[in-house]
Write a structure and sequence with these properties.
heterotrimer; A alpha/beta (279); B mainly alpha (280); C mainly alpha (257); A: 279 residues; Rossmann fold; 4-stranded antiparallel β-sheet; 10 strands; 34% helix; globular; disordered N terminus; C: 257 residues; mainly alpha; MetI-like fold; 2 domains
Chain lengths: 279, 280, 257
Amino acid sequence: MARNGQNGQGAISIRNVTKIYDPEGVHVVAMQDCSFEIAAGEFAVIVGPSGCGKTTLLNAIAGFDNITAGEIYLDGELISSPQKQIKPNVDRMVVFQNGALFPWKTVMENIIYGPIVQGRMKKSEAIQIAREMLNQVGLNEIESKYPEELSSGVQRRVEILRAMINEPRVVMLDEPFRGLDAVAKTVMHEFLMNIYCTRPRTMFFITHDLDEAIFLGNKVVIMTTRPAQVKKIVCVNMPWPREHHILGSETYLGLKKEVLEAVHEEAKKAFEAGEREMA
Amino acid sequence: MNYTVKEERVALNRPKLRIIDPPVFRAIIGILVFLGLWYLLTAVLKLPRFKLLPDPIAVIKEWVSFKPLSGRSLFTKEYYLDIEYSVARTLIAFLLATIFGVLLGLFMGWNRIFYDFTFPMVEILRPMPPLSWIPLAVLIFPGVEIAVVYVTFIAAFFATVMNTLLGVFSIDRNYFLAAKCLGSRPRDIFFNVIVPGSLPFIFTGLQIAMGLSWMSLVAGEIIAGQRGLGYAIYEGSSLYQYEQVISYMFTLGILGYISSAGIRAVGRRLMAWEARRRGV
Amino acid sequence: MKKLKKVFNIRVLRGIISIVIFVGLWQLVVFVKVPYLKNLPYPKEVALDGISAAGTKIYWLNWEISLIRIFIGFIAAQLIGIPLGLAMGVSRKFKDFTFPVFEILRPIPPIAWIPIAILFWPTRELSIYFLVFIGAFSIIVINVLQGVSNISVSLKWAASSLGARPKDIFWRIMIPGSLPSIVTGMTVGMGVTWNVLIAAEMIAGQNGLGRMTWEAYTNYNIPLIVVGMVSIGVAGYLCSSLIRWLGERAMPWKKRF
């Protein structure tokens, strides 16, 4: 837990959050009385059955959507409650499920968009920083390409850099590596770990992939099937930076068993409830 | 041994391929068959009704004649004057329609309240075919010139508005959310998400608008115009100069083709990201 | 009560206000005599003229005549255009032969065909059908062609691996696969068709809604011109709605909104 953000910011507190979609009509309870804490600088991974309300929670924290009951705090400041909803801003950056790099901007234009639009940097300054970031991760030759000329793995990395350059307090990633093959995923994990170690931030990472969850996270939050609540929180006490061979270690296998059991129980429940998708 | 044989085959094939690239060859055949059929029906077989039409050779003769019967051919000043009038009218109307149509469409897509207030008005006026405006336009506006330009404008305007609006609605919601996360003000979202995101649809709309513009222009010129290609077509037909009528129809076709090619070229310039993606 | 609330929400209210503003502006523009627009009739005059026109037999006869012309020309264009587009999409060779000719004729505005149509066809009525046909024809061909070429190859492969013969692939894959573009082509074509019809009726017709509007013009009856325009707009709108409705029926797998 020692890995705090540079300024010790980014603690998220989720207290008794309930979200009901269309209360007068279909009445879908996406989350019910859900509470947990994410410490500043912590890498939290959220896992749970499909459609259980993980993205609902992300939307609430990001300020895209309101909640029906409860409160969400960021560093002690109320950011979301039924009465109040702080609009999306650079504190809480989101990396989207299907990717949201602007296809009409080059890689460089995408990355420097945030700092320039906020008036935080001059263009030349932003370009310099962006170049440094791209160099660091070995992506220096793509700055004038358009996103759709790149592989989806590279697109995801650029999108993460676009988020990081704004120095947010929290980075939220909604299944960012979904649809990548196993090899590409390994590369992505090392990339993300690299970023996390050099620029520590609070991470809010949603995934289906349990290996990914344990490999990356220092806290794995397992959600129940809908309505989402916290089923179990598993702490992963393995040192950083992690190498892939830890996937064979005793500690890892023990953790995986623990997580798997909890997830499987929920997946079965979800399946029995008529939900066809599994974790 | 085998190797040399292959080499020879390639060498033999190459010039052959270049001369008659099958699609080009077929295209030429297709066009020749069309012209031949036209000639056959009108000049050789002289079938009933068909014999009333001029044959292709007569059309071409008239088109390139130094002393055309109709007074209008490639080598007369009159021909280019007609083109100039029509092009100028279309261009003015089209540019006005683009400016106002794109702006209106973008604002409607940008602001929900503005959309709610303006969309019903657009929906009332839009289903009226542009050409049904001709009589009213001629009566309201001083001078036929403005009326013709107005009718051409109306045709292009609604196509542009509707496509721009569709373009804004086609933008993935995530781009808006991402832009908000990155700290954009509404103005930034307008210029960095809405405008570029709707460009592909805007250009589809402009393409359609250009086609409609030419159509309305011709109708406007026939019904109300003085000068211009449409007017000349009508005049030609009342003087039984059907060779000239057909040469003018093709002239209109060529101009229409050039103008949509122009729009496509501008579109490719403005949407480098689309062009490059297709290139990959 | 709840239902009423849902229908009568703020957005519907804005729509109604918008239309009221539109009519109000129209009234105002004529009332304060804005240059040029002051020649417009008041909305009330148009409404009264419309009501009295709707009471006459000739008005509905014009409707009937115009609708018949649209349907004959339009359906002929579909009957010839759809098979042609399919053939071009299925056979590369056929497309190579025919498409260039098509591309030469396509950019010619349909209305420029009027003199030739009048010359060629023995009756005015036939030449109007022909012009309507021309208006819808190239659009449907282009759309069908695009539709066929957009069908994914894997669908065809999947069908052949399930034992489909070429005939089955044509009827079960190509036809339904290009249906969305056929409907798009019909919708766009319907719009153009009304344009062409109106021009043709004004220039060459003896009756129909376009001619009615034109005669109002020659009699300098401005309210009746507007009545004509509105009638044409309504007729065009009805025709497009019909096509959309047919499209939804034909493609139950496609949700439209």
